[in-house]
Amino acid sequence: MNSKDIKIIGSGFSALAAACYLAKAGHQVTVYEKNATIGGRARQLKKDGFTFDIGPTWYWMPDVFERFFADFNKKPSDYYQLQKLSPAYQVYFGVNEFVTIADNLDEIIQTFESIETGSGAILAQFMAEAKSNYDIAIKDLVYNPGVSPMELVTIETAKKVGQFFSNISKDVRKRFRNKKLIQILEFPVLFLGAKPSDTPSFYSFMNYADFGLGTWHPKNGMYSVVLAMEKLAIELGVTIHTNSNISKILVSEKRATGLMVNGTNISADIILSGADYHHTETLLDVSDRAYSEAYWQKKTFAPSSLLFYVGFDKKIKNVEHHSLFFDVDFDVHAADIYDDPKWPENPLFYASFPSKTDANTAPDGKEAAIFLIPLAPGIEDNDYIRNRYFEKIITRLENLTQQELKNSIIFKESFCVNDFIKDYNSYKGNAYGMANTLLQTAFLRPKLKSKKVENLYFTGQLTVPGPGVPPALISGKLVAELIEKHL
Questions:
Q1: CA 462 – CA 272 distance, rounded (Å)
Q2: pLDDT higher than 80, residue 164
Q3: CA triple 469-180-348, angle to 5 deg
Q4: Of the candidate ranges 135-149, 212-226, 415-429, the one whose mean pLDDT is the lowest
Q5: Is the peptide bond prior to 465 cis by the omega test (within 30 degrees of 0)?
C-alpha cells in the first residue's frame, strides 16, 4: 500500500482515534486543532487549584475504550487509572427525596423492588433484553460504516425489528408504573440526544451500559483519556498542531487537494474532518457541499447545554459524584428543547462533583462542581440569562440538599450556546451532535465519505454512529477503515 499524506481537521475523540488507526496503517498523519489545546469538546479548565472537564464527564461503556486500545496492543491502564464509582449516581426528586443507583445490578434490582413491588423481577427481565441489544449493537452493528441499509439486517436484528418501531418511553411505561423509576430508566437515552419518546426501543442497550457495566471515573478526569490518545498518536508518528485554524478545504476537479491553515495553503492526498460536519461543508464551495442548509434545518439535533464550573470553599453534603436533579417536570423541559424551543422555566439539571472521588480536582477541604442544564440549540444566550439560571439551580440545590452554598462560592465560570459556536463551530451551538432518532440512525445519518468531493471524509458526532464518547471512538475507527478500503 502507498503511504498517503492525510490531514485531519480537529482533535476531538473521533479525530484522534482516526489519526491513530491511519498512522498505524502506515500513513503520514497531521492533525490541525484551532484551539490552544487538543481534545475538541473534551477540554479542561484549571483555575485556583481546581480542575474541571469542560465537556464529557461520564465514562460509560468501558469495553469500547478497551477495544480501542487493544487495537494497538495496549490497555487503558497503560495510560490512565480507572475507578468504578460506588454508588454510580444519585437522582433527586424532592427535598431529601432521592434514589441512589448502586454499582451493581443486584442492588439496583432491590432498590427498584423497594420503590414499586414486583418491579425488581421486571427490571431483571428488561436488563436481560437490554444486554442482548447491547451485544448486538456494540459488538456488531455500530462498527458498520453506515453505507447501506443492509448493515442493519442480520439474523439477530430481524428478531428485534419491532423494537425499531416502538420507543423507549412506551416500552418503559408498559412495564413500570412508578414515575421515579420511569425517569431513571429514561435518563440514559438522553445521551443519544433525543427524547425517550423519539428513541427506538432497541436503544435500551443504554440501560445495560448504565446498570450492567457501571459508571467509571478516570483519575484526573476525562481529559486523561484525551491525553492517553494524544500519547498513543504521537507514539504512532502522528504530528499535532494547535492554534491552527482551517479557513478553506482546497478542491481541484472535485478532488480534495489540501487545506488553508492560518492563511497558508497546505497540500494533502486525503482530508478528514473531525470538526462539526455542517461547519466543515461551509469550508467548501456551495457546489461541493453534499448537504444543503435546508437539510440541516430539518434535522433533529441533540441539545445544547448551559454549563457552570464552580469552586466551593467547603465540602458539599448530601450529593454523590454524579447527581441528577429531576424534581421538576421532565416532559415540560423536554418540550422546551424539542417542540417549542425556549429557555425552560424550571430546568432539570445535572451536577458532577469530581472532588468526591478524585482529590486531584480540588484543593483540600474544597469542592469542584460542574452543573449542566440541557437546552434547545440555537436559543438566545447572554450573561444575564446565564446568571439568572445559575441562581435558579443553586437555590434549588440548597433547598433539595438542605445546606447553604451561595456564600461558599469562590468563583464560577460558564459555557453555553455562544461558546459552543465560537470554540467548536458547532451547528446552532449544539453540545452532542445529531440525535439518534429512527430516521437519523446508521445509513440515514450524514455520510463518512463526501458524496461530492473525492478524498474528503468526515468523522464525529454528526455522522456514524452518533453522539457520545464511545461512539466517537468507533466513528474514528470506521472512517479509517473506509479510507483504507477506498485506497
A1: 14
A2: no
A3: 55
A4: 135-149
A5: yes
Rounded average pLDDT over 417-429? 98
End-to-end CA distance of the chain: 8
SS3 category, 249: strand
Q: What is the pLDDT of residue 168?
A: 93
Is residue 383 within 8 Å of 308, Cβ to Cβ? no
Q: How far apart are CA 199 and CA 195, in angstroms?
A: 6
- The pLDDT tens digits of the residues spanning 453-486 come to 999 999 999 999 999 999 999 999 999 999 999 9
What's residue 126's pLDDT?
Answer: 96
**In contact, 437 and 425? CB cutoff 8 Å:** no
pLDDT in tens, 1-39: 589 999 999 999 999 999 999 999 999 999 999 999 999
The backbone region for 373, taken as left when phi is positive above 0, alpha when psi lies in -120 to 50, beta otherwise, is beta
Closest by Cα among 179, 175, 218 to 91:
179
The single residue listed with the C-alpha cell 474528503 is 456
Q: State how far Cα 127 lies from the chain centre.
A: 23
* DSSP conformation letters of 198-238: GSBGGGGHHHIIIIIT--EEETT-THHHHHHHHHHHHHTT-
- Asked whether the CA dihedral 376, 379, 385, 387 is positive or negative, the reply is positive
Cα 108 to Cα 90: distance, rounded to the nearest angstrom: 12
What distance lies between CA 76 and its chain's CA centroid? 19
Q: Half-sphere exposure (CA, 13 Å, Cβ side) for 82?
A: 19
Phi, psi torsion values for 250, nearest 5 degrees: -85, 130
CA neighbor of 392 nearest in space, from 425, 355, 349 = 349
For 345, the grid coordinates are: 422555566
Which residues face 312 on adjacent strands?
367, 409
CB distance 57 to 291 below 8 Å? no
Residue 421 has pLDDT above 80, yes or no: yes
Nearest-CA neighbor of 38 among 355, 423, 460, 368?
A: 423
Q: What angle do CA 287, 290, 293 make, to 5 degrees?
A: 85
The predicted model gives 176-195 an average pLDDT of 91
Query: Cell digits for 223?
Result: 481529559
According to DSSP H, which parts of 382-461 are helical?
383-401, 417-424
User: What is the pLDDT of the chain when averaged over all its residues?
Assistant: 95
273, 10 Cβ separation under 8 angstroms: yes
Bond into 446 cis (ω within 30):
no
Question: Is the separation of the CB atoms in 436 and 463 below 8 Å?
Answer: no
Provide the CA 360 distance to its chain's centre, in angstroms. Answer: 24
Q: How far, CA to CA in Å, does 33 sit from each of 8, 224, 234, 436? A: 9, 18, 15, 27
Residues paired with 304 in a beta bridge: 375
Tell me the residue length of the chain.
Answer: 487
